[in-house]
């Protein structure tokens, strides 16, 4: 007999598992399908983010930063640390243990909320039926009133540098190095490339980042991106912009990369090469030809602002649809869709999704950039505050970077908050909370911020928008 559910979710990543839990909490009979297996051959929930993305990369970033501080940052505090070394296998094992704890936690939440886990590959058929192919090849078909597709994304392959997960790796392989490569190449100066490049550079690798675009971090505010390029270069990352990879050759456990830049044909040899040129939606064998669900010209599932596909009752969320490929965006889409299925009129504010790059210093932003607003012809006032003037940042010996607040010149409404510096992600989230409630720069400036905190930098930047900063000289208005 065919199993019937109110909601069937395909994929248990940060979009899918959150959607499944929320739907179950709303009283809907819910199933979630997942096929990803861990190293032990067991189904692991949490998708790319928990298993081979956000979480493991942050674990390595934090471990590598602590090592860097012990080697280069303790002396100024009067702490003597001689002969500090890194045990890479132990660091990677810690990362794997964190992943195991979190994926196991999702499994526990499924049980606690009454979500049925169906192990295997999900494929949408006509009439909101979903075929589940188990790991042993057996199939079953389940019937759903509503289907949520959350199949996620995977790394983009490029023909000039085919991944072998040995010498040439993707982001997944870069989390599993058992020793520090002497020389490391990274193709792509995006979030993943910069984060993974930072990890291994801190541990002693000579890192070169090869980026095809002429502009560094084009999605970020130009002032922040310029500061980031300067800072990361100072940290030892060699960032080659306008460099297009044309080929590669693996010989004797090394890879020679050919690329062209403004100076012509170039060649560099590395012990390891990370390919981090972006991600693409996973739609392989996901949709039967008569499912009725449409893909757009880039291979993403077409949805409207509420994540509804062209088939009534079928939704798609996360990396497989338009918009930023961010775990938190996927999760909130999952919540919105579950609530809409349950009859609520939930909406999502796509204008205020924070972006974060977890280098050190962190780079984060929410809202619009100064160049975007200028392009739209919006007159703005801008306030900045450097962490070099922050007492809390000085105490922590972490004074690089700044906070930037952009406000509408007419209404004073905050349109963007951009940070490079310590705890940038947390400070930007404060900005996002204020912006969600339509805050003005004056509103932020009138609030009481505890002292001494890094948050005061946001307070001062908001004051600086209208020339009222206290702890930095205000720029004279032209």
From TrEMBL:
Residues annotated as binding NAD(+): 188-195, 211, 278
Leading EC class: oxidoreductase
Domain Pyridine nucleotide-disulphide oxidoreductase dimerisation: from-to ranges: 353-462
EC number(s) per entry: 1.8.1.4
Domain FAD/NAD(P)-binding: 5-334
Catalyzed reactions per annotation: N(6)-[(R)-dihydrolipoyl]-L-lysyl-[protein] + NAD(+) = N(6)-[(R)-lipoyl]-L-lysyl-[protein] + NADH + H(+)
Pfam families attached to this UniProt entry: Pyr_redox_2 (PF07992), Pyr_redox_dim (PF02852)
Location of the protein in the cell: Cytoplasm
First and last residue of the signal peptide: none
Co-factor remark: Binds 1 FAD per subunit.
GO MF annotation list: dihydrolipoyl dehydrogenase (NADH) activity; flavin adenine dinucleotide binding
Cofactors, names only: FAD
Keyword NAD: yes
Positions with a binding annotation for FAD: 58, 122, 319, 325-328
Keyword terms, alphabetized: Cytoplasm, Disulfide bond, FAD, Flavoprotein, NAD, Nucleotide-binding, Oxidoreductase, Redox-active center
Entry GO CC: cytoplasm
Miscellaneous field: The active site is a redox-active disulfide bond.
Subunit comment: Homodimer.
Function in brief: The branched-chain alpha-keto dehydrogenase complex catalyzes the overall conversion of alpha-keto acids to acyl-CoA and CO(2). It contains multiple copies of 3 enzymatic components: branched-chain alpha-keto acid decarboxylase (E1), lipoamide acyltransferase (E2) and lipoamide dehydrogenase (E3).
Family, similarity comment: Belongs to the class-I pyridine nucleotide-disulfide oxidoreductase family.
Name listed for the protein in its UniProt record: Dihydrolipoyl dehydrogenase
Source species of the chain: Pseudomonas borbori
């Amino acid at each position: 007999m065919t199993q019937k559910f109110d909601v069937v979710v395909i994929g248990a990543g940060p979009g899918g598992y959150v959607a499944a839990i929320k739907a179950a909490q709303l009283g809907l009979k819910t199933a979630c399908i997942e096929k990803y297996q861990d190293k032990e051959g067991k189904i692991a929930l949490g998708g790319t983010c928990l298993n081979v993305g956000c979480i493991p990369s942050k674990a390595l970033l934090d471990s590598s930063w602590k090592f860097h501080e012990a080697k280069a940052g303790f002396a100024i505090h009067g702490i003597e640390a001689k002969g500090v070394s890194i045990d890479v296998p132990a660091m990677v094992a810690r990362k794997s243990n964190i992943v195991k704890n979190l994926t196991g936690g999702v499994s526990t939440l499924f049980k606690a909320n009454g979500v049925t886990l169906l192990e295997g590959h999900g494929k949408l058929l006509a009439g909101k039926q979903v075929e589940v192919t188990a790991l042993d090849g057996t199939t079953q078909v389940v019937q759903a009133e509503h289907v949520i597709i959350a199949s996620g994304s995977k790394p983009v392959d490029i023909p000039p540098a085919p991944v072998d997960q040995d010498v040439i790796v993707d982001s997944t392989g870069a989390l599993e190095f058992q020793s520090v490569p002497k020389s490391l190449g990274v193709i792509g100066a995006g979030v993943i490339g910069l984060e993974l490049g930072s990890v291994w550079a801190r541990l002693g690798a000579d890192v070169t980042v090869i980026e095809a675009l002429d502009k560094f971090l084009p999605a970020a505010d130009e002032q922040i991106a310029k500061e980031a390029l300067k800072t990361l270069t100072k940290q030892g990352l060699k960032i080659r912009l306008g460099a297009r990879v044309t080929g590669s050759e693996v010989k004797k456990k090394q890879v020679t990369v050919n690329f062209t830049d403004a100076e012509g044909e170039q060649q560099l040899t590395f012990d390891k090469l990370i390919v981090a040129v972006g991600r693409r939606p996973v739609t392989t064998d996901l949709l039967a030809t008569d499912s009725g669900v449409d893909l757009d010209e880039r291979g993403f599932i077409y949805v409207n602002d509420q994540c509804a596909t062209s088939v009534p009752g079928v939704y798609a969320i996360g990396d497989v649809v338009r918009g930023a490929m961010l775990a938190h965006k996927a999760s909130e889409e999952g919540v919105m869709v579950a609530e809409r299925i349950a009859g609520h009129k939930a909406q999502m504010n796509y204008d205020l999704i924070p972006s974060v790059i977890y280098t050190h210093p962190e780079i984060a932003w929410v809202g619009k950039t100064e160049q975007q607003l200028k392009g739209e012809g919006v007159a703005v006032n801008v306030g900045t505050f450097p962490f070099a003037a922050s007492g809390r940042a000085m105490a922590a010996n972490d004074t690089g970077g700044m906070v930037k607040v952009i406000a509408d010149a007419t209404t004073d409404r905050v349109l963007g908050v951009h940070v490079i510096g310590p705890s940038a992600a947390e400070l930007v989230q404060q900005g996002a909370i204020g912006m969600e409630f339509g805050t003005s720069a004056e509103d932020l400036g009138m609030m009481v911020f505890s002292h001494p905190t890094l948050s005061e930098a946001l307070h001062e930047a908001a004051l600086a928008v209208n020339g009222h900063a206290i702890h930095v000289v205000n720029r004279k208005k032209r």
